[in-house]
Amino acid sequence: MSPKPHIKNSPDNALYDALFRPKSIALVGASGNPQKNTARPLQFLLKHGYDGTLYPINPAYRDIAGIPTYADLKSLPSPVEHVFIMIGAERVIDLLDDCAAAGARLVTIYSDGFGESGPEGRRRQEALVERARTLNLRILGPNSIGFADIPNKRIVSVNAAFAADNLVAGHTSLVSQSGSMMGSLLSRAAARGFGFAKSVSVGNEADVSVGEIVDFLVDDPQTRSIILFLETIRQSDVFAHALRRAYQAGKPVIVYKLGRSEQGRALSQSHTGAMAGNDEAIDAFLRAHGALRVNMLDTLYEIVPLIETYGKMEPVIYKRPRIAVITTTGGGAATVVDAMSAQGLDAITPPDDFIRRANDALQLDLRKVPVMDLTLAASSMQYRQLLECLLQAPWCDAVLSVVGSSAQFHPDYAVEPLIAASKVAHKPLAVFLTPFAPRSLDLLRKAGIAAFQTPEGCADALASFMKRKHPINHTEEHYTTAIRWPDRLPYEGLLTEHEALQVFDTLGISHPTTTLIAVGAAIPCLDYPVVAKICSRDIPHKTDVGGVITGIQDSTALADCMCQILNRVRKERPDATIDGILVQSQADRLIELILGVHRDPLVGPVIMLGAGGIRAELDRDFSVRLAPTTLEEARTMIEEVRATQLVAGYRNLPLGDLEALARCIVQFSSLAVLNNPTIEDAEINPLFVQEDGVVAVDGLIRVSEASGECRERPVCHTIAHACHPIQSSHTPSVPGVPSP
């Protein structure tokens, strides 16, 4: 359990000071045995020149490394600002009163055995936070390995990475939910010459959250960019607020989040005890708030020069960004072109007029191929001049230079054209070095040029940067709708399809003409052909029990089909309460899609558009955004679903009404902001796209059992309220959204 999230309008200076610039630190459980982890914080503080007051707390010692020790916090001669606790979990909560009495503002807890360890640990963590709250203490951790302010030599950590004699200071700050990975990233980056300003291990994040720390770093003058290693997302509203502040301040936030795969999510949960969440929903959340998510660990810091140099340029408007590739090694270029293609980037072939002018002016022999290969054919000056021409060319969005073996043996020659070339603010330049060439990498880093050691890392960074978008501006200017909950519909539980269609009516979403025929009632006059379906709130998936028959041509056939359906359902689900048979006019379509709204447990409501039918499961062809969404975002979602290309002019096939589809997405997404009742899940499956409009053929809506008792109507909401996600537990069985 965490304290109620608080979105700050201004920095908490006292908490910032206690975390990053404490004038006094008490180390509870400090050891005089240099082989123990609990000896490290004192060692590191002394080694790196901390200039504040240190209070080792351990009754077993009179002093450690010449620093007087104290039996307990009550014995301290003066107040302490920060307490770092390294004792057994069962003893920690009893220590909080002494921390508060000693004047502490912040307590970092290295001890494990809390929320990550099971039910008993979770209860212990809840009690810990509750006690800290009553004492006006803030908690970093538990299970935190500490923090560091490297430029100012404040290293309060047990991580062995800080044993290095010379810590590399820089302008990037790191926040990690994994303590061990914080040290790994620091050491890997240092080996490349990348330094850090601040680093924080949040551990279980029981109180002080990643979002709060990011918010601090936005105001930190030593921090230019922020990298995050995440296993989950907690306090998503605080996190979203901080990400937007970082974006507005021009401080990029780059995220590596575990859980791309089912196994990765399971491992993350087993390690931290935290909920992993739905990966596609987390992608949508990060994108909506201006963060960049990368797929490779080293990309976290390798991408920093790219985004710090070119972060102010406008995002690329093309679906697949166009990369001009210049190389001195054909094979090396092919490896990175392959990797880029897998990430949705195109190595663009130069146009004829560019090739002709470049060959004439520079005395080259360029050919009409996607890679401009200058192997053994160009001088350093020719390479530089061609590079400058590409950086000015309007037909590409970025330039990638792939350097061969000369990068290893002749670093000055290999990178000199890259460093000396005139750059432009609107055209990114990146470099991939095919050999292991640390000297060349270092020269490029010092020149502020993003350089990569692997083709996969290079493609990962380029894709993340080139595909970034501005955060979505959720305002009434983009979207406003009124939602009236239909009379007599339930305020909790699963709605029948008949009831769901009434909600669709209030949203302005079309559906086939529908009639509910009670069991035993006469069949009214209908227009045929029709579809017959079982109507029961106990049966959300009607086809699983044989509850749907299509293509019914007349009333005699309908009567027979109704009997068949009722007999099948009574056999499969004798416990189900049946409202009757729902009869719909049979609709035509060009393609069928699925549209769903779901409240993700980590990031709140999302909307998903995907291919319908069995393709949804087989192809994982879908697009996800936070909900509610805007018309512009809805159009982008349609482009991202491959199935929609079948009705977007592909090979002269009939055109579907994609603008009507975009409006439907926006209308349906408004269910996410309805809070009386609160919608947990809703889906249209299938949604038929026609030449003139779209039709919701089947629907499902699940209302939260926690919905309020207020029954006022109508209820009006706007997209402006969507930045405060609500948690949930269930979703339809749809790719990109977890099944129950």
Which helices and strands, and how do they pair?
Layout: H1 13-20, E1 24-28, H2 40-47, E2 53-57, E3 63-64, E4 67-68, E5 82-85, H3 89-101, E6 106-109, H4 119-134, E7 138-140, E8 146-149, E9 154-157, E10 169-176, H5 179-191, E11 196-201, H6 210-218, E12 225-230, H7 236-248, E13 253-257, H8 262-272, H9 279-288, E14 292-293, H10 299-302, H11 304-310, E15 322-327, H12 330-342, E16 346-347, H13 352-362, E17 371-373, H14 380-392, E18 398-403, H15 406-409, H16 411-420, E19 429-433, H17 438-446, E20 450-452, H18 455-466, E21 480-483, E22 493-494, H19 497-507, E23 514-517, E24 530-535, E25 548-552, H20 555-572, E26 580-585, E27 591-600, E28 604-611, H21 615-619, E29 622-626, H22 631-640, H23 658-669, E30 679-690, E31 693-696, E32 699-703, E33 715-718
Parallel strand pairs: 1-2, 1-5, 5-6, 6-7, 10-11, 10-12, 12-13, 13-14, 15-16, 15-17, 15-18, 18-19, 19-20
Antiparallel strand pairs: 3-4, 8-9, 8-11, 21-33, 22-32, 23-26, 24-25, 24-26, 27-28, 27-30, 28-29, 30-31, 30-32
Helix pairs in contact: 3-4, 6-7, 12-18, 14-16, 16-17, 22-23
